[in-house]
Amino acid sequence: MSIRARVCILWVKSYLFIACFWLNSPMDDIAKPVVGNELNLEPYWLPYTANRAFKNAPRIIESAQGFYYKTRDGQTILDSFSGLWSTGLGHCHPRIVKAVQDQVAKLDYAAAFQVGHTGAFELAEKVIDFAPDGFDHVFFTNSGSESVDTALKIALGWHRVRGEGTRIKLIGRERGYHGVNFGGMSVGGIPGNRKMFGNAMLPNVDHLPHVLNLEHNAFSKGQPAWGRHLADELERIVALHDAQNIAAVIVEPVSGSAGVLVPPLGYLERLREICTRHGILLIFDEVITAFHRIGMPFGCQRFGVMPDIITTAKGITNGVIPMGAVLVSREIYQSFMNGPDYAIEFFHGYTYSGHPVAAAAGLAALDIYVEEDIGARVKELEPVFETALHSLRDAPNVIDIRNFGLMGAIELAPRPGAPGARGMEAHVKCFEQGLMVRHGMDTLAFSPFLTFTPDLLEQTFDTVRKVINTIRNS
Ligand SMILES: Cc1ncc(COP(=O)(O)O)c(C=O)c1O
Questions:
Q1: Do 51-89+373-470 and 94-371 show the same overall fold?
Q2: Do strands 61-65 and 246-251 pair parallel, antiparallel, or not at all (unpaired)?
Q3: Domains of the chain: which residue ranges?
Q4: What is the DSSP string of 350-399?
Q5: CB 3.0–4.6 Å: which of 61, 90, 286, 453 could bond 290 by disulfide?
């Protein structure tokens, strides 16, 4: 056989070997799922998502307008959750789109440290105009998680600069959600968010009990009557750790991510009373409840209970550009303003704090809240939402329905041995029926647009009923 023929055979053999190896390789296990137009789904590790299930049956959003998403394969989806509690003014609001487009062409970015830009100052002033009396200063962040960790650091720093550096304990609440950074995760109380990282939790954290009790409060509308005494647990925790060691208590006025847990009547008032008596700062995490989600610019105004620090994000820009803000009083701010005036007073900040494009989105969003009288629209819609939501009381497997402002939840009984399966099935089936519904385990949560309409609420809950009817019992 000629040398040429031998080389040729060798070449074919090695080609076959490589081909066989490739065909049998472990890469097969991560075959690249593609959807129309060859979109490679594999490289993207989706957050808070069942990645394998998703990649087997992807739901890809391509565009959005008003109350609707459009998927990559052309399906129109009614969004019952305003993005992720974030986009209450509707998707692609033309005024926000224009503000962002104009800003990015004018000043795309300005260094955030030791210089400033106009938009950040203007937005800080506007947020303060929006906020309850007594809140005079704003620290900008890029997310709810960053707002929470910033607030915890402000609380620790505040005690320290006033000579009470022993106050380092932080009190959160079971089932609370304060984002995913180490501070927020540690004061948070959703078990699934904690267990993988259990050994790395911050020390010096304790938790209040949560406020959900189906035995006493199932199917409550608005604030439940039972449960004020749960706030007294704070007295027990204070006695255990000693007030002199406790910096702050952090709670969501209404817990959102754990499935809309509404504070019982008198509960937040009692927390306020106890914190004040013991010199403990009270932080309200209003990442969801600020910017009219519960009918007032800030949730604390709706409850008539004033915290010392407020964290926000989401609605500040209508979710269009990531941004968060932490609000504090003049007293807290001034306590940090000591030492030589050339020295940095608070060693904290983000490259994108007060980002010009986010600030432009925020300025436009805050104008819209005022000019389109969003507060009045939410007040009108709230009872319609409550009636529509509670109309599902008799649907199969529904064990609780709860609501406050434009936040609502329907809790399904878990399927025996498969907690979370019913919730997931409902989410997927609703999507197939053209409705975006958020679920956490077996609880379906609703956060309608602040400008939604009664007929779209009816359509939403008609679809949810149809879907719940089809979810198998066993
Ligand atoms: C009350 C609360 N705090 C913090 C966060 C975390 O916000 P982000 O996801 O922007 O970090 C959330 C998110 O939903 C939230 O609801």
A1: no
A2: unpaired
A3: 51-89+373-470, 94-371
A4: -TTTT-HHHHHHHHHHHHHHHHTTHHHHHHHHHHHHHHHHHTTTTSTTEE
A5: 286
Q: What sign has the CA pseudo-torsion 170, 171, 174, 177?
A: negative
Regarding the beta carbon of 447 and ligand 1, being less than 6 Å apart is answered: no
Lowest-confidence segment of 16-30, 272-286, 393-407, 429-443 by average pLDDT:
16-30
For the segment 171-206, what is each residue's pLDDT rounded down to a tens digit? 999 999 999 999 999 999 999 999 999 889 999 999
The domain 51-89+373-470: what is its CATH number? 3.90.1150.10
Ligand 1 atom closest to residue 289's alpha carbon, by position in its atom list: 1
Tell me, using a 6 A CB cutoff, whether residue 177 lines ligand 1: yes
Distance CA(320)–CA(35), nearest Å, equals 26
- Model pLDDT for residues 258-284, shown as the tens digit of each residue: 999 999 999 999 999 999 999 999 999
CATH hierarchy code of domain 94-371: 3.40.640.10
List 63's β-bridge partners, or say none: 70
**Cα(31) to centroid of ligand 1, in Å?**
33
What percentage of the chain reaches a pLDDT higher than 90? 91
Q: Looking at ligand 1, which atom is closest to the CA of residue 146? A: 11
Ligand 1 atom closest to Cα of residue 143: 10
Kindly state if the Cβ of 179 falls inside 6 Å of ligand 1. Answer: yes
Instruction: Calculate mean pLDDT across residues 302-319.
Output: 98
Kindly indicate the confidence band of residue 34, based on its pLDDT and cuts at 50, 70 and 90: low
Q: What are phi and psi of 131, to 5 degrees?
A: -85, 165
Q: How far is the centre of ligand 1, averaged over its atoms, from the C-alpha of 311 (Å)?
A: 10
Q: Which stretch of DSSP H or E encloses residue 404?
A: strand 398-404
178 CB less than 6 Å from ligand 1?
yes
**Cα of 255 to ligand 1 centre, how many Å?**
11
User: Rounded CA gap, 281 and 309, in Å?
Assistant: 8
Taken as a whole, the chain contains a residue count of 474
Which residue puts its alpha carbon closest to atom 8 of ligand 1? 144
For ligand 1, say whether the CB of 287 is within 6 Å of any of its atoms.
yes
Kindly report the pTM of this predicted structure.
Answer: 0.92
Beta carbon of 313 within 6 Å of any ligand 1 atom: yes
What pLDDT is recorded for position 199? 87
